[in-house]
Amino acid sequence: MDDELEILVTNDDGIDAPGIRAMADGLAAVGDVTVVAPADDQSAVGRRLSDEVTVEERSDGYAVSGTPADCVVAGFSELVPDPDLVVAGCNEGANLGAYVLGRSGTISAAVEAAFFGAPAIATSMYIPVGDGTLADVETTAADFAEPVRATRHLIEQSIAGGVFDEASYLNVNVPKDAGEGLPMDVTYPSTRYEMTAERDGTTITVEDRVWESMDPETIPDPPGTDRRSVAEGRISVSPLVAPHTTGSLDALESIAAAYPESDRR
Fold it and tell me: Which residues form the Survival protein SurE-like phosphatase/nucleotidase domain (predicted)?
């Protein structure tokens, strides 16, 4: 890459999260980095947009009182003229499986970038929590060294290598504390879905049971999936396309063609 890349870095954990600080610092070696990130935690907001947000210009970037999608739109429109690439992350916690693609703020930032015609990388770190939750785990910028290293490698190789001629964005997931030099797999999102709900009077508790085990000996996710790759201690890279592609049209074509002549009810 002869010309320096203009890189917009965002996240959904908030501008003060250690993952985005590590990412911004690490990517300074491969481009001109501008951080445009939510002022506070916006995890799992998907592509939600705000009608109006405020922005605070800080020494470490722009803090936006909105969502990751707001940050990307504001970045392209006002704050970062013509970025060459958007990097979202590094997220604290994995974004694995097809069912999280529309839910994750991290991935949604990458999708938003695709509508601006820019390549994007969404990077997340899988953090085992045992019987606890992510809120029980404290991380520092040093914990994100391998996700940053993987993201740098993908930036340096993928743009010149033509990856983004086919893919709109890459969904990258890196195991925590697995050391440097992990193998990297090209994967597709697992289709396993285990959301459940339980009612107790007027309260319904929703639970994501897919995280109950990441034991590679017992999880049912097949080889080639993002979850299988991470569970076995490898970096998962899924090349994904936005906007969403259409399915088979043949059956629907005949149904649509019959509508104007159908009986009025």
Answer: 7-187
Mark the binding-site residues for a divalent metal cation, compressed into ranges.
12-13, 43, 91
Cα–Cα distance, 176 to 171 (Å, whole number): 16
Cα distance between residue 200 and residue 180, in whole Å: 46
3-state secondary structure of 92: strand
What integer pLDDT is reported at residue 253 of this predicted model? 79
DSSP state of 137: -
pLDDT tops 80 at residue 134: no
Residues forming beta bridges with residue 36, ordered by sequence position:
62
User: Residue 47 CB: number of other CB atoms within 10 A?
Assistant: 19
pLDDT band at 260 (very low <50, low <70, confident <90, very high): confident
Tell me the two tokens of residue 116.
């601006």
* Structural domains of the chain in order of their starting residue, each with its CATH number: 5-261 (3.40.1210.10)
Q: Is the peptide bond before 18 cis (omega within 30 degrees of 0)?
A: no
Q: Contact at 8 Å (CB) between 74 and 56?
A: no
DSSP structural state of residue 93? S
Residue with tokens 């890196």: 174
At 79, the amino acid letter reads: L
Q: What is the pTM of this model?
A: 0.93
Q: Terminus-to-terminus CA distance in the chain, angstroms?
A: 62
Compute CA 206 distance to the chain's CA centroid, rounded to the nearest angstrom.
22
Residue list, annotated binding site: 12-13, 43, 91
